Every structure is written in C-alpha cells, then in structure tokens.
C-alpha cells in the first residue's frame, strides 16, 4: 500500500535534512514515521545529539519546493510500497551496521528520473562497476560484458561515472536495453558534467536514481553510501578495473555484506588498475569471470544458465587412446620406418602396432608402402 | 640405504624398456625389483600382455651402454635411497591412477645432470610453468616471479621449454640461484635445441633431470608424464600463461592430485594465453597470485610468510572520522564560506563544526579568516 501524501512530504524533507543512508534517520523513519520525526525536529524536542545535526537544515527545507525542483527535470519521489519501488533495497535493513560510521540504512525513498517500469527493476539485474580512470582494456571489457548481460535479459546498474561505469551503461544502451544509474548527489545534478549526454540517454529508456535531495552536491562520503544502493539493486556486482582502495571495492563489500554475488574481471598483474580486482579475487567467496556467460551462470538459478565449458582446439592426436598416441609419436615425419622399428621406438608389441597403423592410416594420420610407414 | 649395483643396472634397463611413468613398470619395480622383472622379460616368461610391449625393446638394451651414454654428457643415474634422491617424488606412489591411460607412477630412478646437492632439492621449491608461445607480459611476470621466489630461498622447477619455462629458469639464474629443469626426453638430448645454452647454465649451478633413458626422443606423451615430476618436485605449481588445453594445465592437475598448492597469475581476459589460467582460477582450490610475496605466503608454513596487505595511497581524508569527512566535503575550494553555511551544507551542528574546523585547520586541511573558511 502506497504511503500517504503527508508522510511522503515528510520523507522528502528528511531526504534533505539527513545525510543519505544515515542509519538513525533510516531506522527512525521506517520504525516510526518521517512525519513524527519532522514534527519533533520542528518543535526543537531533540533529546539526542544526532537530532541536533538535522536541526541545522530543517528550517530551510520545504517539501513542495524540493518536489518542484525535481519536477523541473522530470523527476519524482518514490517510496517503499510504490509500484516502482525496487524491493530488493529493503534488504539493506537486515545489515548490522555498527561502528563510528553509521551509514548504510535501508532508504525510505528515492528520487527517480526515467521510464523504466518498476517490475523491470525488480527482475534480473547486475552491477558493473570499476575505476573512473579506466584503461582502454577495462572499458572494452566492461562494455562487452554489459552489452551481453543486457542481451541476456539483465538490467545493468552502475554509477554513471567516467571510465568503467560509463562503458557499462554504454554497452547496455548499445544492446538497446534499459540501464540504471545511481547518483551520489541530487537528481537534478547530472554528475559528472561530461556524462550529461550519456545520463540523458539512460533516462530516455532506463532510470537515474538519487537518494540525496535535489540540489545536493555529490560529495566523497555520499559516493561511498551511494555504492550500497548499486550493490543492493543488483543480484551481483562485477568489478572490472579497480586500483587498491578504489570505490568500486566498496561496492563489492556492500554486495558481499548483502549476500549478493561478487565477481571480478582480472587483468595484467602489472596494471595498477587491476590490483584492486586481484586483491578482491583472492577472497574465497569472490568469483573470477571472463565473459557474460560466466556472469550469468553465477547469477542465474542453479543449473539454469551453465556456461559452456571452455575448450581449446582439439587435435586428432587428442582423440586417440594412449597407446595410439605413443605409436603416432613414434612414426617418423618424412623418412619411412619399418613396423618393427616403429614398434621398438614406441615400446609396443608388433602385433598391436600392425593393427593400429592400419587404423591410423584409415584416419589419414599415417601412410605406408613397401618402404615403411611415415606421418601423412 | 642405496640400492645395489645389479638392481641399479636393471632399473637403468627398465628406464629404456618401459615408457616413462608407466604405472605397471613403476609398481612392479617398487614392489618386487627391476632385477626380477628384467630377468623375467629376458626369459620370455611374459604372462600378461603388458610385458609383451617391453620385450620389443629389451633385446637391444644394455645398462653399461646407457650408463656410458649418460657419462659422456656428465649425467648419472639416481635412485630412491640415494643421498640426492628427491624424496617428494615418492608421493606419486599414493596416487590412485586408473583409466585407459595408466601413466604417472612413482619413478624408480632418474637421470641427473648438474651439481645441485640433494638436500637443496628436498627443501623449499616452486614450479613455475606456462605456455611455450608466451607473450612479453607472461615472460616478464614469470621472470620476476622466479627471481623473487629464488631470492626468498625457493628452488624454481620448470620444464626447460621456450616461453614461460625459460623465463622462469632465467629469472632464477638472474638471482644467482640454482634451478631445476625436468626433460621429457633423454638426459643427453637437451631439448629444445634453442635452449641448449640455457640448459647448460642450469646444469652449471643446478640440475637437469630426465626419466627416459639417454637417447629417447621427447615425444608428446612423454611431455604429459614428465609434467608429474615437475609438480611432484615442488611444494606448489604456479601457472603464468596458458591457453585452454595447455600442457601447463596438466602440470597443475598433477599438483592438485598430489595435494600440492596450485596457483595462477591472471592476465587480460582478451588474451588467448591467459584463458587457460583463468579457467584454472575459477576452481575453488586454486589461488590467484600476483607476485612472489603471495606465492611464498601460500607455500610457507601457516603464519610464517604473510604477504603484507596491499594498500593504495591513503589520503588525509581517509584518516578522518566520518563526521570530519562530511565536514571537509562541505568546505568550499576557493570562495570562503561562513561556519553556519558550512554546518548547513554538511548537516552538522554548529558547535561541533567550530571545533572540527579548528582541528582541520591545525592539520593544514582548511584555512579560515574573517571572511570565512575554505580548503587549504
């Protein structure tokens, strides 16, 4: 059941007043209501120190103004219970977040821009993330991976950033499939500026989401907390290129904490931009993937999308049994040898060798005449 | 206790009569004796079909002649019980080998060329193997890895082939350390011809080993069975570059079957020559390694050689607590802002912000005057 207008407006206010993902704000809204919380803040009945932070912003915050600011760019506010709410985000409520940095609660609403129907967003999805300063190799791989995952029916989710994120979105768009970008700042601030065109393409057929209120800047700490939404929206996260301490490793950690699949695409060990992925791949629960087939195999229900076993070219030698292999190894390349000589070199009995040579001859592998046998 | 001369001569004969690693030959020699087996073959009391194969070669085989052939190149025959016998090879006797291709028994002797003392060969050791048609990347990585493993006291074992094998041997030699090459053919046939110089360098300070008798050609099937010796000699096997179906994956399988560590060095997923390694790395028991520190960490007794955790450059931002990070994110780059304005942007209480700004100022991260605060 959708939440009512008063509570929706209170949540819009809270999306501006509290930092995105603030655990206390998320819990208070979910357990009580944004209406009660905003009311308490407005009355100045604070009690706990945390609420005092929020008071700094509440005076200047107006739900109607924020809604208008969003509407100006064609954005709306969606809440849990709405048709187009991605229910998988509610898994974030299960995380046990402690420590000094209490960020990462289940969002109580999101700003959305685009036309992707809610049902599509609740279906199969994969996050493809990585370094902003990607290499040509990384962008190539991310693009191919995204395109093929999209073609196999997976919605590609990423962060709209330069490098791997952009390559992933573009790969999905190249397959004419909807893709989802989650921003760290406000929905009206398409960031980074150089990706404005790309983000408009994403909006045209897919979705751009933001947890922070319109007008909010994409700050460093908001990127880290935004990453949890990318991880939570997706059944699994693939990291394509990441230096040590890259933000995309943070997305991978969220995915792991949420019991989502974590995958990594390896690269040269000499590349600084693969070092973070390799560090990730050394963790036992992280899978190495080299193509979309392997990604989908990991994500799909057991047995549904087994990737074909990879195999190199097989030779006629491979198809022989061990004795015939030994025999073939002993047949000279150019100068014919007698059956007895070949048998001795191969270390096989003459009777057996005679029969096998006939059979290898029939297969076109050896040829024989009165001077002896040699390879065909 | 070393075995006696008669038995040693009989084993030398069997090294020519049976194919290297023939399971039946290995078991019959170990369980009975080579003397009894040669005697039976010479008398023509065959009984089983397998012995009939061996009869093809026994007539022309003479222990003294083989010993002379080996001595001509400075090679000797070593057997289990000898001081310089690598006891770890006896682990091969524990393998349960069945199926059509019964190859891979524990060797009853080896031809050896070089000066590496036996004790050194029974110490710490690592196999570094890979594709013959390696890329510059693979050879670079294999050489570095071998050099650093050698410097950390590990004997590098490989197959003396072109590509990764040669790079591994060269890396070890560059560290002035002994390295071991295991040949697929006879000890007097340094193969491949293009590596003759390298193999002579290996012999000078290390060891070249061969299971097949002097004069034997390095055939395809002998390469596969030779691989088990590389795996068995080493505490672990590292595959650097390998196409799908590469012979070095066969070495990795022997290592796994022997309960040795199996490691792989990743590369670009676009490289055919890393596809085999990546397939290997998708197996749960195989570890991804990117440098010698990680190889040694895997091989050394638990807790003895922990590789330092890899970390990227840390910034002053990383060292701050979450609230100060948020605050720093809210301080303008160039145009100074007031404390109240910064507090509102950061969503933090004014009192707290005042104290934190002073502290960030003391750390040299922000600067303030009567016009307000900005980043330093």
SSE-based structural type of chain A = alpha/beta
Give the quaternary arrangement of the chains. Answer: homodimer
| Main sheet properties of chain A | 9 strands, mixed
CATH architecture of the largest domain in chain A: 3-Layer(aba) Sandwich
Number of helices of chain A: 17
Amino- and carboxy-terminal Cα gap of chain A: 77 Å
Spatial shape of chain A: elongated
Number of strands of chain A: 11
| Average of the residue pLDDT scores of chain A | 91
Order of helices and strands of chain A: HHHHHEEHEHEHEHEHEHEHEHHHHHEE
Q: Give the largest interface pair and sizes.
A: A-B, 67 and 67 residues
Count of discrete domains of chain A: 2
Low-confidence stretches of chain A: none
CATH topology of the largest domain in chain A: Rossmann fold
Task: Indicate the CATH class of the largest domain in chain A.
Answer: Alpha Beta
Strand portion of chain A: 5-15%
Estimate the helix proportion of chain A, in percent: 40-55%
Give Rg of chain A in angstroms.
30 Å
The largest beta-sheet of chain A arranges its strands as 1-2-6-5-4-3-7-8-9
List the helices and strands and how they pair.
2 copies of one chain form a homodimer.
Chain A (H helix, E strand, L loop, with lengths): L4 H13 L5 H9 L2 H10 L5 H10 L4 H9 L4 E3 L31 E5 L3 H4 L3 E5 L6 H16 L3 E4 L5 H11 L4 E5 L12 H10 L1 E4 L9 H14 L2 E4 L7 H11 L3 E4 L7 H10 L4 E3 L3 H8 L16 H4 L2 H9 L8 H8 L3 H13 L3 E4 L2 E4 L1
Parallel strand pairs in A: 3-4, 3-7, 4-5, 5-6, 7-8, 8-9
Antiparallel strand pairs in A: 1-2, 2-6, 10-11
Helix pairs in contact in A: 1-3, 1-4, 1-5, 7-8, 7-13, 10-11, 15-16
